[in-house]
Write a structure and sequence with these properties.
alpha/beta, TIM Barrel, 11 helices, globular
């Protein structure tokens, strides 16, 4: 089977090509063709020798996922269900903002975290995505955006899957996206979200890559979190926030706390005050992103009224904690994580 070069960081590509007897410069040439010139055909890489192009054709590929389903929202959101070579399907979404074209990419086929409110968990984890498949998600969306003179500007690894459960492949994806010789997406424009795998939070902070971290928090105490996020039974909020302290000490980067607003579950004024106390207790530099819930028919949870979301945000801000309410996109196309894949009965 041919190796997909989209899965190689520049460093790994250099090691691969040097082992074939090529110079280190050769990898920069090919890397530039793929990511700067956006050429995915070895035969068109004109400054690469014919003999090496022939070898590349023989031993390697630059395959992209296939678009199984494409949905376009009235607000400009594009949602894709992408099919991998083995038939596995994952979702990727582009949401148009005034500041650019951020995308949300998946890191796994299915998810094993089992969050009670999340559609992704209805289809259990099959496997982690290869680095080449995650890069493929981005490049497929870039091809669509090229038609209107745009390209991906920000990356959120917040789609299906727990990114830190596929740590090595996700980190290589980030390196390719951020590389000055590659896609050149700034580290501050890349965010990885985790449910709270504490060892990986600490490891991530020590990498020195300056990309952002978001924690899927969704509750101000262990009692609520244990009910809606099974991972909380293994990693208490004390362990998670202690890891966030170590992350900040290593990286100096502010953390985003993601908080889905669930009616009658975690959205009361007392819950907001509990969250203030939690953040103050550990002194983590953060801001809170309140997320209106996209209801899933297979699940009992309901979205909090927007008035409740605003009251919750006000309490946080009155106590010196930055808070925003996430802008909603793609409501007419099931843009929430996992919904499209479930609808088509994907593998």
């Amino acid at each position: 089977m041919k190796k997909n070069l989209l899965g190689y960081t520049l460093e790994k590509m250099t090691q691969e090509f040097v082992a074939l007897g090529e110079s280190k410069y050769r990898s920069k040439q090919v890397f530039s063709w793929i990511y700067k010139k956006r050429v995915l055909d070895f035969s068109l890489m004109s400054d690469v020798s014919k003999s090496f192009r022939a070898l590349l054709e023989e031993q390697y590929c630059l395959d992209l996922p296939k678009i199984h389903t494409r949905l376009d929202s009235k607000d400009g959101t594009i949602k894709l269900l992408l099919e991998m070579n083995d038939g596995s399907k994952v979702e990727a979404v582009m949401m148009p903002y005034d500041y650019g074209c951020p995308i949300c990419v998946s890191s796994e086929v299915g998810c094993s975290m089992g969050c009670a409110f999340c559609a992704s968990g209805l289809l259990k984890k099959k496997r982690g995505l290869e680095t080449s498949e995650m890069v493929g998600e981005l490049l497929v969306i870039n091809k669509i955006l090229e038609e209107r003179g745009e390209s991906v500007t920000h990356i959120n690894v917040m789609g299906t899957g727990e990114p830190f459960d596929n740590f090595t492949n996700v980190i290589d994806f980030l390196k390719i996206a951020n590389s000055a010789d590659g896609l050149q997406i700034g580290a501050r424009h890349i965010t990885v979200s985790t449910c709270g795998l504490v060892d990986k939070i600490v490891e991530y902070g020590k990498l020195g890559i300056q990309t952002n971290l978001a924690l899927s928090l969704h509750a101000p105490n262990d009692e609520i979190r244990n009910k809606i996020m099974p991972i909380s039974r293994a990693y208490s909020l004390d362990k998670v926030f202690t890891a966030l302290q170590e992350y900040y000490a290593s990286s100096g980067r502010r953390v985003t706390l993601e908080y889905i607003m669930l009616k009658g579950i975690n959205d009361s004024k007392d819950n907001a005050k509990e969250l203030v106390s939690l953040i103050r207790k550990y002194g983590v530099l953060c801001y809170v992103n309140l997320i209106p819930y996209n209801e899933v028919k297979e699940m009992p949870f309901k979205r909090s009224p927007i008035s409740t979301c605003k009251e919750f945000a006000t309490i946080l801000m009155q106590n010196g904690i930055n808070a925003t309410i996430r802008k909603e996109f793609g409501g007419d196309i099931d843009a929430a994580c996992g919904q499209l894949r479930i609808k088509v009965g994907a593998k």
